[in-house]
Fold these 2 entries.
Entry 1:
Amino acid sequence: MTEKYLTLVNIEHPIHHPVERETLVSVSEEHPGILMERTAAEALQELLADIGGKGLIVPVSGWRSRKEQEKIWADTVADRGLAFARKYVALPGCSEHETGLAIDLAAKAPDIDFICPEFPRIGICQKFREAAPYYGFIERYTKEKESVTGISEEPWHFRYVGTPHSIRITEQNLALEEYMERFAGKDRRSVSRRSYLPGRMFRGMQGISRMYASGKERI
Ligand SMILES: [Zn+2]
């Protein structure tokens, strides 16, 4: 188990060190300009391949430099107003996208909104959402946790934290903020000692299609 990918980034925890550029790779050959940290990019590829999501799910935004985040913030304020920007765009220095561990995804469509892409809770997108924890990803900003994260619901934004953290966070219905608090505190042992099945192991044991067919099956 690694804690390497658990970095908490929010308005109270800004990024102090920019990500090392050599750790970033393209998320796919089809999208050479969208970058993520290598392990996260590989996990994303594996997940998309396993659920048959390639070509149906499109990466919209991965790693962003501080400069890019500043531009996105300024453009969004100019185009859609400050209230909208505050809701959906993190302040420069406080965006998970600057870590290379976050990805915004969209259902393939002719027009994709860069800031708020459509990633519905049905079909292949929902299949992705349900499989994501087994590959190290969490849906980072849910409606239920808006008061904890300080960010409006973003069904399109996924964050790589690595397994088993992603599985535990999802099973225990926690925001990353809440998990980090527990992880740092007394509950650390119970968090880390529970068993888990990362995607690769899980597939080997059960066959991934059977799991998705049943919909509700969980480890
Ligand atoms: Zn995002």
Note: Residues 97, 102, 104, 157 surround zinc ion (CB under 6 Å).
Entry 2:
Amino acid sequence: MQIEVMVAMVVKTLKKMEVSLGFIHIPVQHRAELIGDSAVPFETKLNGVAAKVDKFGRLWSDYLKNRFTVNTQIIISKNNGGFQILANERKNYNFEPETKSPNAFVPLAAEVPPAADSGKKLKIGFVKTCDCDSRHISCITAKEWVKSQVAIQQFPITNDEIKEFYYEGRDIRDKDVHPAVFPIALPAHFIKTLTHRGELVLDPFVGIGSTLLAAQDLGRNAVGFDLKEEYIEISRKRLGQKKILDDGTQQIAILDDAHNIPAYLEENTVSLCITSPPYANMLAHRRLNKSIRGDLRKNSHYLKVQQYSNNPSDLGTMNHEGYSKAIQEIYSGILPLMRKRAHCIINVNDVWENNKRIPTHVYILGALQKAGFEFRNTFIWDKRNLVNRVGIFGWPSNFISLGATMEFILDFWKP
Ligand SMILES: C[S@@+](CC[C@H](N)C(=O)[O-])C[C@H]1O[C@@H](n2cnc3c(N)ncnc32)[C@H](O)[C@@H]1O
């Protein structure tokens, strides 16, 4: 699929009416860049949410209503996925002092999708920089290889021999920040096992950036995408904190729909794609905490709906048919970006809903195969040590396994 990327980027300050009514008045001098010769009015997307450009050059979306405060400076960019806006928080990210003309402002690579900035694909390294044998899949030793072949892995570590998965101080386990985060050690394990230093890692559903942090620690270039601005901002802040390595590799969090990834990356450059996608609309219910012991059930998350967003492009809002289709579309776009025999790891769990088991891992398997990936391995993330407060449910007649005690880690490659 050839995707044409239209690019532009404009800085402007929001006025009171714009904030309260939910629009951006695109400055007249920038209409050609942002709107081109498209016939107005037209429907579009703004940060993945439905939007419309009217005949006066105003970009309207519910996304905008009271989202920013008056006088916030925003960066508007456009590519073939629609418009993206970000608050211009240059102070937090050590920008150069403001230039006289806001239009001459050039952000750091990690601030705005560079594809939208430069008119070209993202400039990011993907070639191995270590001196180990290039016939090897990664830099690991034979001894490490044997450990990583164990199909069931557990964390936090209980066994000194198996140190792959563990929670550390930087892991965020507060569900109010993000409801479904994996530990940094999980992507770190697969990045180490399946890539060399300097190579490129992709996370299509990056959340608050655990994969990017793991890549930064290990000297791998990495790009991650998420639909939610708040998560992308958290990813960037986490990446700006103390680094273990400072070796010139880049880790970039981009606010965009995973469907648009081919607009950013060159073909045959990605050495590992790793993610934990939404598990269809599993979070779109009031949380009942049924797997937690009765007296502990009514914790601060009880009866809360913890879905990521209401964005219709959010896979976490989709029913299982829509979900499988979206996964297939997204991974069909990713396949050409990957190098031959590059691995693609997906961490997923099945869902228990209305007294039925929803086999999400089977949907993922089917969708990835239809997208052209070849299935290679299943790993089980053994979570028994994390669910010591479990309750009994189903007893004595409805036999239900405790889904919270494990997750699938499915491994594919580009044949
Ligand atoms: C399970 S979370 C990933 C969490 C991540 N592994 C971490 O540790 O932070 C899935 C993420 O997918 C994002 N998402 C859902 N639909 C998306 C789409 N169409 N494109 C990009 N991101 C999407 C959600 O906003 C959510 O943050």
Note: The longest helix spans residues 320-334.
